[in-house]
Specification:
By secondary structure, the protein is an alpha/beta fold. The protein folds into 3 domains: about 5-85, PDZ domain (Pdz3 Domain), CATH 2.30.42; about 90-295, pyruvate-formate lyase- activating enzyme, CATH 3.80.30.10; about 305-439, Rossmann fold. It is built from 15 helices and 15 strands. It has helices at about 15-20, 40-45, 80-85, 115-125, 135-140, 155-165, 170-180, 200-210, 240-260, 270-275, 300-315, 335-345, 375-380, 410-415, 430-439, and strands at about 5-10, 10, 30, 50-55, 65-70, 80, 125, 150, 185-190, 215-225, 265-270, 320-330, 350-355, 390-395, 420-425. A 5-stranded parallel β-sheet has the order 7-8-9-10-11. The protein is globular, with a radius of gyration of 24 Å. The relative contact order is 0.07.
Length: about 450
């Protein structure tokens, strides 16, 4: 469906091709190489050539026809908000859907379920493919929409229909086959639910997905996340130490097989399984290319590696006392304490403490830092002896903003706790950089 024959240009990237040509915010994109634009994917495809003709309508209706010579895949520097606002919503009712477990009263955008291949291509979102037609799959292949991230969960057609509560969900194997034949790069995700798609069913799913290797390059397996707001929803058990340990052992057997026969472990567990099982993380080398960081696969190991490398390179010569409190979710406590120990061992003038926030907002079964709310942080830190410098990971905040999930802002935290919040990227080197430069 065509959004609009003339697409309003929302922003121009300074110094870009568009900026140099005099294209401005408020102009409209009419055609590229004589074609009207359906969506952002078609736009990306059409501008990938080295020689293109772009038609721009100015506010006075004058049409500019611009012949542009550029590098292959070089961006024009046009930003369109309208494309992004036209997201495809999810047609599933997944039994494990996290959005269905949100409390009422949060900001509206948190309740929107996207299932949009454009966002998968542009931002790495995972999609189920259940709302795609054969023509949509053809467009993905023809426009080379790659890589694409797909939520598979199971390759058993009937089980997938039940898990997604969608009668259109059973043809995932056929869809993957078409994408492989079209040479589209794929990453797959499995949300694992105890007694539902684990055990032998997990073995079969991974084996089935391996048939699409190397186009399907890797599989991430993450445990189902359960909040306290599941009234009226499908009964699902949570992973505990013993069951998580069993999953680790099961997947390690498969990893060893694929590593021997294909040179890759292919399937990777998210860090949560190891944290739930209270067992040692895999080695840095075991994560290969860290292909599924967006699913929390290897992010803790990568963090610890960053700490070690940064400390080895760091040449800090000062007697200045530095203090900071590192705030995290409960899963992050042991690793951040180890990181703090390493830092303080090398630099005795640095004083760090680590505080894990219990998730009262979503429920105490949620232990990741990315779901910590501002209110929980305030309530649990207000009576503690904390540093003036609070270091928090950026995954606690809405992308590119200062908002927590409960709409509290950084300034609210700083005011209530009389402290300064320092936002750290999720790697060890940035933590050390912030300690050295801002504390």
């Amino acid at each position: 469906m065509i959004i609009n024959h003339k697409i309003p240009i929302s922003e121009i990237i300074p110094g870009s091709i568009a900026d140099e040509l005099g294209i401005e915010k408020g102009d409209k994109l009419v055609r590229i190489n004589g074609k009207h634009i359906m969506d952002i994917l078609e736009y990306k495809f059409l501008i990938s050539e080295e020689s293109i003709i772009v038609e721009i309508e100015k506010p006075d209706k004058e049409i500019w026809e611009l012949e542009i010579e550029k590098g292959f895949d070089e961006d024009l520097g046009l930003i369109f908000h309208e494309f992004i606002n036209k997201q495809k919503s999810c047609s599933n009712k997944c039994i494990f859907c996290f959005i269905d477990q949100l409390p009422k009263g949060m900001r509206k955008t948190l309740y929107f379920k996207d299932d949009d291949t454009r966002l998968s291509f542009l931002h790495g979102n995972f999609v189920t493919l259940t709302n795609l037609t054969d023509e949509d799959l053809d467009r993905i292949i023809n426009y080379r929409i790659s890589p694409i991230n797909i939520s598979v969960h199971t390759t058993d057609a009937e089980l997938r229909k039940k898990m997604l509560q969608n009668k259109e969900a059973g043809n995932i194997v056929e869809q993957l086959k078409r994408l492989k034949e079209g040479n589209i790069e794929i990453k797959a995700q499995i949300v694992l639910c105890p007694g539902i798609n684990d055990g032998n069913r997990l073995d079969k799913t991974i084996d089935d997905l391996y048939q699409f290797y190397p186009q399907l390059s890797c599989v991430a397996i993450v445990p189902v996340g359960l909040t306290k707001y599941r009234k009226g929803l499908h009964t699902i058990l949570e992973y505990e130490k013993a069951s998580a340990s069993n999953v680790i052992k099961q997947v390690e057997v498969m990893q060893n097989y694929y590593l021997k026969n294909a040179g890759t472990r292919f399937a990777f567990l998210s860090d949560e399984f190891y944290l739930i099982a209270s067992t040692e993380l895999p080695t840095y080398k075991s994560y290969e290319e860290f292909c599924q960081l967006e699913n929390g696969v290897g992010i803790t190991r990568l963090f610890l590696e960053g700490i070690g490398k940064s400390l080895n390179k760091l040449d800090y010569d000062s007697n200045e006392i530095k203090n900071a409190t590192i705030v995290t979710g409960e899963y992050g406590i042991p690793f951040l304490m180890e990181a703090s120990r390493q830092i303080m061992k090398k630099y005795s003038e640095i004083k760090l403490d680590v505080i894990g926030i219990t998730n009262e907002f979503f429920g105490t079964t949620i232990k990741v830092s990315g779901l910590i709310t501002g209110a929980d942080m305030i309530n649990q830190l207000k009576d503690k002896a904390i540093s003036h410098n609070l270091l928090i990971p950026d995954n606690m905040l809405k992308d590119g903003e200062v908002l927590f999930l409960d709409d509290l802002e950084i300034s609210d935290i700083e005011k209530k706790l009389r402290a300064r919040v320092i936002i750290c990227k999720e790697d060890g080197s940035d933590l050390i950089k912030n300690i050295m430069e801002k504390c």
